[in-house]
Amino acid sequence: MFDVSTFVSDCRDAVSADPTHRTVLEVMEAAFHDPDAVLAAVGEPAGAGIDVLHRSDTLTVLNVIWGAHSTLMPHNHEMWAIIGIYTGREDNIFWRRLKDDSSRVEAAGARTLLKGDVAPLGKDIIHSVTNPLGRPTGAIHVYGGDFFAQPRSEWDEENLTERPYDIEKVKAFFNN
Asked: At what angle do helices 22-31 and 4-17 cross, to 10 degrees?
């Protein structure tokens, strides 16, 4: 049985023992062996949103609900992240900076995450996320730092040029 408070406590303990993603990844993988239990604990997603389960300088735990047919522009985190899907599907496109213009990016790979999948993302990863389904997708995101305070970048959807990450724009995206 998944319990949000216990999960957050286990993640905090893991980061205290090892500030890299490795120990938190073990906690995530154990929790997502039963994604239905995670869904039962957090509830069926009804619409887009971000629920902060824990926030500190060293760890942020979010319940992220991707709205139906939604896409978030390329962005980075400047900290490690681990994503676990408890319902739905998340398609990630991974991007790399162009050699001749490091302010622009090009697609470099992709990965689909399905219910029960857990994926670590390194500190330097640039990715965009799409929920291709006609219903919400639910995921637990764990970050190795303060997700809301970390300076980072996003890339314009049309011309793929870098600009400062706009957290207020992202919050609005999830409030639709």
From this structure: 160
* Lookup: tokens for 94: 């991974």
Calculate the CA dihedral of residues 16, 18, 24, 25 and round it to 10 degrees: 180
Instruction: With beta carbons less than 8 A apart as the criterion, state whether 87 and 42 touch.
Output: no
Q: Following CA atoms 11, 143, 86, 10 in sequence, which dihedral angle do they give, to the nearest 10 degrees?
A: 0
Which residues, including other chains, have CB under 8 Å from residue 133's CB and lie 6 or more apart? 68, 69, 88, 89
This prediction has a pTM of: 0.95
Asked whether the beta carbons of 14 and 23 are under 8 A apart, the reply is yes
**Per-residue pLDDT tens over the stretch 68-97:** 999 999 999 999 999 999 999 999 999 999
Specify the residue for token string 């050699």.
99
